[in-house]
Amino acid sequence: MIKGFRVVKADMTSTNGFIYPTQGAVTATDFVANEECGNGLHFWTADNCDFDACGYHGCDTVWLEVETDDAIKLHGKYKASSLNVLRTLTVKEMHELYPSLAFPFITVTAGYRGTATAGYSGTATAGYSGTATAGYRGTATAGDGGTATAGDCGTATAGDGGTIMLRDDEGILYVKKITKTTAGVAFKLIDGKFVKVI
């Protein structure tokens, strides 16, 4: 039995309009047993989760905890002919169940020498000598001597003596050492160059 999760909109529909129950069995009428996206019910596990592919719907997202004994592993997700919906969960409950995942739109704060990690469009803030990491379109802020890293289209800010790292859309990581004159300034990456956010 494989246990995982999936997201639906507040009206319990998927991105493609498939209606899920709040609890109980559900079957795909269009299932095709192949290793291609589509033609099945898709879900994710803690060790096979691509948030860019999960159809996250922001604040209105409903998380479903699901299980199945018939699944095909795809890149970043699974698909199945049928799922058993165990229960619905809030973002907070999901974060508590799967703390190792960097959940989208989550705000995480860590203190002195702490580590804060947030996922897609998330906000990560760490204090003095801390490490703040945010994913695609995320915001990372670290204090003096800290390290702030953000993904593609993200923003990073660090204090005096800190380091900011921004990743471009091709996955290349750019690094900038922060001095007193650039401390507390938010930067984004444009064409491989650090640009101050005004």
Which terms summarize this structure?
single chain, 198 residues, mainly beta, 1 helix
Summary, kept brief:
With 198 residues, this protein is mainly β. It contains one helix and 18 strands. It is elongated and about 60 Å long.
What spatial order of strands do you see in the largest sheet?
9-11-13-15-16
- The number of strands is 18
- Form type: elongated
Mean pLDDT: 82
N/C terminus separation: 51 Å
**Overall structural domain count:** 2
**What share of the residues lie within helices?**
under 10%
Number of helices: 1
Assembly state of the chains shown: single chain
Tell me what portion of residues adopts beta-strand conformation: 35-45%
Write the element-wise H/E pattern from the N-terminal end onward. Answer: EEEEEEEHEEEEEEEEEEE
Please give the radius of gyration in angstroms. Answer: 19 Å
Backbone structural class? mainly beta
Q: Major sheet, described briefly?
A: 5 strands, mixed
Low-confidence stretches: none
